[in-house]
Design a protein that fits this description.
440 residues; alpha+beta; Beta-Lactamase; Helix Hairpins; 5-stranded antiparallel β-sheet; 5-stranded mixed β-sheet; 15 helices; 14 strands; elongated; disordered N terminus
């Protein structure tokens, strides 16, 4: 079939398109234009009348123009142009659809390179430019193998993997091939990511709570039950014994209440440990409020609290959660008061200290007591749950064994560090270091 003919859909007959010209003719418009120019020069040079030469040249030029227009129209055939336009619009359409999805989505091409990712994925795995190798985006061999398997088998694949950087997190990746054609090796692959960290922490929190609660509540519960049986039996009519036992029972009940409060607090902190705070906290004001609130306890124990900051110092502002940081310094200062009371003084200070070479200074908050100190073998384990260097003293002073564990988990969430220095007979110092908040 020639370029100037087409087959109709109804009767299968060949019919010529209106205003259509054969392709062999449309290719000769430059020759007509050149012939017209040569003819014009020849006619003028031989002195022929203009009324004969000009019409001849005009007709040649018009014919050349018509042939050129037909050739250009053929080149811009809409049936040939539309696929190219659609191809150019397709990436923009894909990006718009991906950006509208509430889950993290990544599109990987047949060369195992990132083709596109939506903003949710950028927040989850970091922002990457299109074209980078997929192994730079998700550094996990299980996911890379799942992408290859999904493309070759042309079936969805699901895989669960953990990421250790910047913190320990658990993800589920749903991998599925898209636009699979005859050659499955050339198809793209869509990855949908789901963060299972919160769900995992919640399950762990429930199991830990049951284990810890059953272990730590057993002793005070046994004590309460024993005293209740005694009051119901031999001491039923003994007024003096009843008063003494009721006092002990009240103490045990208070201990149970504190223990449950600390367990619940620790569980809440662990549940969001992977979410870094975004607020701004002025440590000067926060620690000042804690010192003021603990003055009555310090007076009861005969301890003076001294809070000092350098003169003319810049604001000690960090990125954090105000209530959680207040809880950190309340635990540290209250511990210093209770366990270092014999030193009769607790020093709290704020300062800027140099960090690694080439890095900005960090903000250090220090809580120091002058009590009996802590033996070296206990220092590495002080932040473990329910670990006590002196069990008897801790329980006598209302400790639950969870205070420093709470401090550690809060500081981990804030990307801060805790260092403990102590020497027997010379007290103990707890030093917390933060990155200074960036100025907006």
């Amino acid at each position: 079939m020639s370029d100037g003919e087409q087959m109709t859909a109804s009767d299968g007959k060949r019919e010529r398109k209106p205003n259509a010209l054969p392709a062999s003719l449309t290719q000769w418009w430059p020759a007509f234009a050149g012939a017209a120019a040569v003819a014009l020069v020849w006619l003028l040079s031989n002195g022929l009348p203009a009324k004969i030469g000009i019409p001849f040249v005009g007709v040649s030029l018009v014919l050349a123009w018509m042939l050129r227009s037909a050739s250009m129209a053929r080149r811009q055939d809409p049936m040939k142009v539309l696929p190219a336009v659609a191809e150019r619009q397709q990436p923009a359409h894909e990006a718009a659809v991906m950006a509208a999805l509430p889950d993290a989505v990544l599109l990987i091409d047949h060369d195992m390179r990132l083709k596109a990712m939506n903003p949710v994925a950028a927040e989850l795995v970091g922002k990457h430019e299109a074209g980078v190798p997929f192994s730079f985006v998700i550094r996990n061999p299980q996911v890379s193998e799942a992408v290859r398997s999904a493309r070759l088998a042309d079936i969805p694949v699901r895989v669960t993997y953990s990421a250790k950087v910047p913190d320990d997190r658990l993800f589920e990746a749903h991998v599925a091939p898209v636009a699979a054609g005859a050659d499955k090796k050339q198809s793209d692959v869509l990855i949908l990511l789901r963060d299972l960290t919160g769900q995992q922490r919640l399950e762990r929190m429930r199991s830990d709570f049951v284990a810890n609660a059953s272990h730590e509540l057993r002793t005070p519960l046994a004590s309460l039950m024993g005293f209740i049986e005694t009051l119901q039996g031999p001491a039923r009519n003994d007024a003096a014994a009843r008063e003494r036992f009721l006092g002990i029972m009240a103490t045990q009940a208070s201990r149970m209440a504190r223990l449950i409060d600390d367990l619940m607090s620790l569980s809440r902190i662990e549940q969001k440990a992977h979410l870094r705070p975004s607020g701004k906290v002025d440590l000067t004001k926060t620690i000042g409020h804690v010192v003021d609130a603990l003055q009555p306890i310090a007076s009861e124990n005969g301890v003076a609290i001294a809070f000092s900051i350098p003169e003319n110092a810049d604001a000690f502002t960090v990125t954090g959660e105000p209530d959680e940081l207040m809880q950190v310094f309340q635990n540290l200062i209250e511990n210093a008061i209770k366990y270092g009371a014999s030193g009769e003084k607790v020093e709290v200070s704020l300062s800027r200290v140099p960090d690694k070479p080439g890095q900005p200074d960090r903000i250090e908050a220090s809580v120091r007591d002058f009590g009996p100190g802590i033996e070296p073998e206990h220092l590495p384990r002080l932040t473990e749950r329910f670990y006590r260097a002196d069990v008897t003293t801790s329980r006598e002073r209302g400790g639950t064994g969870l205070g420093l564990a709470i401090v550690k988990h809060i500081l981990n969430r804030h990307r801060a560090s805790l260092a403990i220095d102590s020497k027997v007979g010379h007290g103990a110092a707890f030093r917390v270091r933060f990155d200074a908040a960036r100025s907006d």
